[in-house]
Amino acid sequence: MIRNAFILVLLCFFGCNQNQSPSKDTESTSVINTDYLDYSGKDDQFTGGIKMIPIETPKGEFNVWTKRVGNNPKIKVLLLHGGPGFTHEIYECFDGYFPQEGIEYYYYDQLGSYYSDQPKDLSLWKLDRFVEEVEQVRVALGLNKDNFYLMGQSWGGILGMQYALKYQDNLKGLIISNMVASIEDYNTYSSEVLAPKLPKEVLETIMEYEEKEDYTNEEYLTLVMEHYYPKHVLRMPLEEWPEPVNRSVKHMNPDVYITMQGPSEFGIKGNANLLQWNVKDRLKAIKVPTLTIGATHDTMDPEHMKWISTEVQNGRFLLCPDGSHLSQFDDQKVYFEGVIDFIKDVDAGEI
After folding, report:
1. pLDDT of the residue at 33
2. DSSP 261-323
3. In contact, 342 and 316? CB cutoff 8 Å
4. Do the Cβ atoms of 86 and 113 come closer than 8 Å?
5. Is 23 tagged catalytic?
6. Active site includes 38?
7. Where are the chain's structural domains?
8. 325 belongs to the catalytic site
9. Out of 109, 255, 298, 331, which one is annotated catalytic?
10. Does CATH place domain 2-16+41-347 in 3.40.50.720?
11. Which of 34, 235, 247, 334 has its CA 20 to 30 A from that of 56?
């Protein structure tokens, strides 16, 4: 029932604008070394870079989907999508920036997401199990401390931090995009800073549904979509949201999302598995070069992301002043310039 109601309302908003013109950016780009897109002799040439990687879990073996783009033995970026339960598709704009910089990168649908296996056992949707999944993916892809950059956004940022706290010796660099280090702080920012910015009557109606835990009510979802998402998730009119974002929403797995994040769009509540997550007092243990990315209009407090960069041993902060939670789209130039500069500086030993 939750699946049907949630997907139905999302599709009403995101399914109407699938044909958008490609970017007409005419800026000059660097010439790519011909080896970058040469897949000859690679074990994934037949599939154009796609690999289904077997993952061992407490509930048996499953397969997760990955796709490699490019060749660069020194720089390999594994992308951890948000959600939980969304897909790599929300990162597809990276195709417009990473190849021209010669950066090798990997799309990856976590277990339960659309292009990977989707087991129905809810006990699999736990943070520690996802950490072990990422480690298995790393090993299968041959990534190591000399070339491995882990980049996670939103839920992917939680997963990235948790992975680094256990396996940072395997990393060359860590990028935490649009995610704070404490769910309690996220909830406080949502309720005390962002919610009061809504029109009074809209907030009152939303809170009525929140109090009744009527999260699948169409009016509740409509108000969230019309008044909250275009200001703090992706700062564009809903009908102009990019096609990869709409596709990721369409492919979202509500079982994973609700089990870990909960049903509310105003913080993590109820019995969600991530409700008590907090690594603020452990950040000082992260020694690998780390970039944190915040955005002025984000669902997460940008000052908290800036603070994370000062807590880790070797941090840098990037602010996207015009961005929100998906700042790779609504403040794209700033976002990618900062990410690429960080990767290149780490590669050059300057950070």
Report:
1. 64
2. T-S-SSS--TT-TTTT-B-GGGGGG--S-EEEEEETT-SS-HHHHHHHHHHSTTEEEEEETT-
3. yes
4. yes
5. no
6. no
7. 2-16+41-347
8. yes
9. 298
10. no
11. 247
Residue 233 pLDDT > 90, yes or no? yes
Q: How far apart are the first and last CA of the chain?
A: 49
Q: Which of 113, 116, 154, 177 is catalytic?
A: 154
Tell me the per-residue pLDDT of 101-114, one tens digit each, with 9 for 90 and over: 999 999 999 999 99
Q: Which of 81, 88, 232, 325 is catalytic?
A: 325
* Percentage with pLDDT > 90 across the chain: 84
Mean pLDDT of 279-300: 98
What's phi and psi for 172, nearest 5 deg?
A: -100, -30
- Averaged pLDDT, 227-247: 95
